[in-house]
Design a protein that fits this description.
It contains 5 helices and 6 strands, in the order αβαβαβαβββα. The chain is α+β, with helices and mostly antiparallel strands and 143 residues long. Strand 5 and strand 6 form a beta hairpin. The longest helix is centred in the first third of the chain and has 16 residues. The two termini are 20 Å apart.
């Protein structure tokens, strides 16, 4: 909608890729290496990060992928992606486990105390995004 596209193809999906991702997440959970896991779906990476952060009023400081438009990186809905949170002490073990499973991964950034930054740019606080997330539809319907 923001980019003025009225019709676009369904997000990319490959069943073998999905199997690798799900097996990798299952293994990380089995080994107790992650704090949380959340699939990337409607709204893309940004919405996934906000939904994950809202639970404990946390924030995040992330960097988008090089070579990909920022809006596509943050809001693209391609499948077979999961955002996991990891304690700093276990980051190396998680990376080794993913490499051993041939599961592609990207370290996005870090969890913060409520502020949201993307590529060094301030995007407000989780509290403001939480308010928007929880109330915007009702506000729009009452206009």
């Amino acid at each position: 909608t923001v980019r003025g596209v009225s019709a676009s193809p369904a997000p990319y999906f490959d069943m073998k890729e999905e199997q690798v991702v799900q097996a990798a997440v299952k293994e990380l959970i089995r080994k107790d290496l992650i704090i949380s896991a959340h699939d990337v779906s409607e709204g893309g990476v940004f919405v996934t990060l906000v939904e994950s952060a809202m639970v404990n009023n946390l924030g995040f400081d992330v960097a988008t992928g090089s070579g990909i438009r920022k809006d596509a990186f943050l809001f693209g809905e391609s499948q077979s992606r999961v955002i996991v949170s990891v304690t700093p002490a276990l980051t190396g073990r998680v990376e080794l486990a993913l490499e051993a499973l041939n599961a592609p991964f990207l370290k996005l950034g870090v969890v913060s105390n409520g502020g949201i930054k993307i590529d060094g740019e301030d995007f407000g606080t989780i509290e403001s995004w939480k308010t928007t997330y929880n109330n915007e539809l009702a506000i729009r319907m009452n206009e």
